[in-house]
Known about the structure:
The complex is a heterodimer of chains A (527) and B (259).
Chain A: H1 2-16, H2 22-26, E1 47-48, E2 61-68, E3 80-82, E4 85-90, E5 94-99, E6 105-109, E7 129-131, E8 134-138, E9 143-148, E10 154-159, E11 174-175, E12 180-183, E13 194-198, E14 205-210, E15 240-242, E16 247-251, E17 273-278, E18 284-289, E19 305-311, E20 314-322, E21 327-332, E22 338-343, E23 350-353, E24 359-361, E25 372-374, E26 388-390, E27 395-402, E28 405-409, E29 423-427, E30 434-440, E31 447-453, E32 462-464, E33 468-472, E34 477-482, E35 488-493, E36 503-507, E37 510-517, E38 520-526
Parallel strand pairs in A: 1-32
Antiparallel strand pairs in A: 2-38, 3-4, 4-5, 5-6, 7-8, 8-9, 9-10, 11-12, 12-13, 13-14, 15-16, 16-17, 17-18, 19-20, 20-21, 21-22, 23-24, 25-28, 26-27, 27-30, 28-29, 30-31, 32-33, 33-34, 34-35, 36-37, 37-38
Chain B: E1 20-21, H1 37-46, H2 48-51, E2 67-68, H3 74-83, H4 97-110, H5 122-130, E3 140-141, E4 144-145, H6 161-169, E5 181-186, E6 191-199, E7 203-207, E8 213-217, E9 221-227, H7 242-253
Antiparallel strand pairs in B: 1-2, 3-4, 5-6, 5-9, 6-7, 7-8
Helix pairs in contact in B: 1-4, 3-4, 5-7, 6-7
Amino acid sequence: MKLLVRLLVLLAAASALAQVPYERIRDADREPGNWLTYSGNYASHHYSHLKQIDRTNVSRLKVAWMYQVRGRHHFETTPLVFDGVMYITDPPSDVTALDLRTGRPIWSYRRNIPQGAPVCCGQVNRGVAALGDQIFVNTIDAHLVALDARTGRVRWDVEVADWKLAYSMTAAPLAIRDKIIVGVAGAEYGVRGFLDAYDPKTGRRLWRFWTVPGPGEVGNETWSDDSWKQGGATTWVTGSYDPELNLLYWGTGNPGPDYDGSVRLGDNLYSDCVIALDADTGRLKWSFQFTPHDVNDMDSNQIPVLVDANWKGTPRKLMLFANRNAFYYILDRVTGEFLHASPFARQTWAKGIDARGRPIRNPDSVPSEKGALVYPDDDGTANWFSPSYSPRANLFYQNVREKGGVFFKVSVEFQPGRLYLGAVKRDITTEEPYGALRALRPLTGALAWEFKLQSPPWCGLLSTAGDLVFSGTMEGDFFALDAASGKLLWRFQTGGEVWSNPITYQFEGRQYVSVASGSSLIVFGLG
Amino acid sequence: MVITRTIQWAIFFAMTPAIFGLASLYAAGAQSPADGSLGERLYLTQCAMCHGQNGEGGRGPTLARPKLLHAPDDDSLRNVIRGGIAGTGMPGTRLIDAELRELAAHVRKLGQVRPAVLAGDPKRGGGIYRSKGACAECHTLSGNGGAFGPDLTGVGARRSPQHLRESLLDPAADFPRGFAWIRVVTRDGRAVTGVRVNEDTFSIQIRDAAGTLHSLWKADLREFHKDLAKSPMPSYRAKLTPGEVDDLVAYLANLLEAK
């Protein structure tokens, strides 16, 4: 009998491997040894409570192992790690499970992508989601695929949208209690954006929220004529989730066409917004528009960071949002009430933000025949790369791109599957753009410190309870700063551009830090 | 969207987008479809700023040549337009296949335009290059010469005659992307002046006028000066007569490939 019990216990333990019930993700902060969801937790702090690697020993970090991918496009993955296995995506839409002890692959899912699938900015993928015993990946041809976490074999594969209309998918899905939430890209091609929820067991679509309202729906009046049909407002970066409120928070992208507002008069809701949706129904609870009637490609596809704090003496559920348009926002995430905005980088497109959070646009920032000089350019001050919030340091960290551009208006005409832009951007050749890692006071947006970078970065940030912040550069450096002071403590030349978000995890009692750079996934540990 | 920070002024000219030959005059256009209207619109908005309204070249290479060495057929031309050329000023584009086809067809049409006849004498220009101009002190030609300035091997295929003339008379008017004139002083008092070969957040590599490479950690520097508007090349406006400038331009414009 004892033997039987032991066997049953062993069986239960084995089946528990590669099992990620919703509660584990919800309580991700309780098991910092794993990285269970794209942003580390549902609040998207991209922060770890691990502290074995700290200010005193980070200088001893050495490469533990590397894994090289074969894709030709940017390697933008944020790995998930749990139960001895790391799950990465490599471009265009492949998934590989790696053994944490050796770095050796356990399985790979290889997807054939149709020739000519149109994407504005590379056939990239930023990572997977895990729920139960399945791994979920969005594909560049706009499918959602569920894989067996143990073998990589396909459980189901559903079309989210038609890639021939230039829909594509690059973000990691977000797994919540009983749904897989996925967003789409394609706003450079005049698609109509949406956010979807799928049943993790069957792949059946549970709801869809169109980010551009149709006729008769509230918000449709913010689009002149039929312009809503090509309204863009895509959802191409993973959002956040508040389990208590059961609200999803998701950034939306630019309106279509990107740069010509004359064919879509009005505020163009819900482009360049953060939307709060009821996770059960997909119904809109509230929205906040950062850049009404955008003509500079200022997608708000950044990551909403959820923080509970005292706001002027009252405990409130807040959202921190460092927007591509160079303003740092604080919103009440229960109601969507605007509380604060302040610039965190150079910007010339707005003269300021009014008391309701609405920008006062500088008319000189509208693309023209003679060219409109605008800071930031259309890559933005922030972009898809992750910010990090350290509750320990009480600082909000953001990588910043300091770069302007000149926008020349060109004629635009919509044809399905073709670029729908309305301007051409030129770089400024008389000055060098640069970057910075900035630490902001979360409740004021005030600069605590900054670490300047040679060029505008495409790397996200990781902060840890070891009082460290990790980041990378376009020249291949991966480095660690003192989270409190911004002082450089360690660096390593990886030999490739860093286009990804670093993560950390613990395996067999030791903490590791991992980042994708060039075509390599690199794992660092204490030497 | 991708900005690659390759900073190698010394070899900039050698790495520009496409190298052209002279064979099979006017034949290439026949490879492409005839409808160039969308192609022309795309060209004027996305290409003309560097390659000129009619493909005459400028900061970017002349396209008004019948055969493109890096794009001998339409497939390779579309690949260059789609993906750009890493490490050069040639970016990739976000065009779909149909647009690529039409833009490539328009570029082929530009190749049918007869090139302008230059006023100068290339033979006399070659003499000026080697003697009065002293160009070889800083510039490499077919493997010979200084390493301080850009390699001029095949420069006639990569720069228009107008751009070459401007570079001789007003060298600071247009710099290769990433160019910088650097002066640093190390903490132990050593001064280094030269052009930037490469730079990142933590280090810089500089080539001085003697061609020596200096690699330095920024943390070891006491002073760091960067000038993006200063060219180490002297203007030839006062050094050469207008006729000699014509001759030198004609010589450089005829440097179409490695000898």
